[in-house]
Specification:
By secondary structure, the protein is an alpha/beta fold. It has 13 helices and six strands. The radius of gyration is 21 Å and the shape is globular.
């Protein structure tokens, strides 16, 4: 056999073994490697008229089963972990017949430098380029967004590509479980979704050991390069989404809180001023949209109501859900 043919065979075998190992690792760690899923809240007999757009912050932070029951309306959602307005704008087109939209945002998922792991799977390349040109995104952000598209194809063979943080944390957690025989409390920093509608998470951020908290802060800072910016492609997508949703019917936008630790570490007065200016500009452009601010609730300004840096736990969800329904009644 010729040398070049041997090299090709060896390369193919190595890639095949690597691909099998990559898929096996993703499965073992329980890391989600596919994007949108469908979720229906409320009785199956009710025809859905409301569409929910949000990231896992929305699903964990509010009890949509209870909300659907109180409103006596079914709620549909195309759920993508780590998603943002860039993905919601595209997913909204799947439900043109619905006459109410609930859009849930926070400083975390509105941050332009925090990119959804599945952005390239959902948002067409042409739309990404158009939005980046329109808002004047810097070269560094443009490069990160564009690099997701070739990565999307490579992940068909090697799904662990670009998920190093989640893999490392997941392996450490698995090893701790094997050694101690007890489930590790350290969550995998990669897209995962709960299977229940009501939060059952009782873990409190306030109980985290310092070492775990420091690791998570470092990983999060690395994920968005220690920067917050709210005037880029996500804002453009949110404006388009609100405009389209207002033409269909009622629109409610909910602003969720993040933990006090996150606020102290990342949300400087300047960053918060920019976030408020972005919300004010969006309200000015979409005056028919009803705005509900849950980030101002004093009872949620407590790390004990969060399960991690940005997600509410069971106790926080109860507070947020009650406040949401109360404020919704005023409209």
């Amino acid at each position: 056999m010729k040398l070049w043919l041997k090299l090709i065979l060896i390369l193919c075998m190595a890639m095949g073994i690597g691909s099998i190992a990559s898929h096996g690792l993703i499965h073992w760690l329980g890391i989600r490697s596919s994007h949108s899923g469908y979720r229906h809240y409320g009785s199956e007999d009710l025809k859905p008229q409301t569409i929910l757009h949000g990231s896992s912050i929305a699903w964990d932070g509010l009890d949509w089963g209870q909300i659907s029951e109180v409103l006596d309306k079914a709620i549909d959602s195309w759920i993508t972990p780590g998603s943002s307005p860039s993905e919601w704008e595209v997913e909204h087109q799947r439900s043109p017949q619905l006459n109410r939209a609930i859009i849930v945002v926070s400083p975390y998922d509105m941050n332009e430098y925090w990119l959804c792991d599945f952005r390239a799977d959902i948002v067409p390349l042409s739309q990404s380029i158009e939005d980046m040109q329109y808002c004047g995104a810097d070269k560094q952000l443009c490069k990160r967004i564009l690099s997701q598209y070739p990565q999307m194809f490579i992940r068909n063979f090697f799904p662990t590509i670009g998920r190093a943080d989640g893999v490392m944390v997941g392996i450490r957690a698995k090893l701790q479980e094997l050694i101690s025989g007890v489930d590790s409390k350290e969550a995998i920093d990669a897209p995962k979704l709960s299977t229940t509608k009501t939060s059952e998470v009782v873990e409190k951020l306030s109980d985290w050991p310092l070492a775990r908290l420091q690791r998570r802060l470092v990983l999060m800072r690395t994920g968005f390069q220690g920067r917050h910016w709210f005037n880029g492609p996500k804002k453009v997508a949110l404006e388009h989404l609100l405009e389209r949703a207002e033409q269909q019917g009622q629109v409610v936008m909910v602003v969720m809180p993040v933990s006090p630790i996150y606020q102290k570490e990342f949300l400087t007065p300047k960053v918060m001023q920019e976030f408020e200016e972005t919300l004010a500009d969006i309200q000015h452009r979409s005056p028919q949209t009803k705005l509900i601010r849950l980030d101002y609730l004093p009872d949620l300004d407590d790390d004990a109501t969060f399960s991690d840096l940005v997600h509410l736990n069971m106790y926080g969800q109860r507070i947020a859900t009650a406040a949401f329904l109360t404020q919704l009644e005023t409209y």
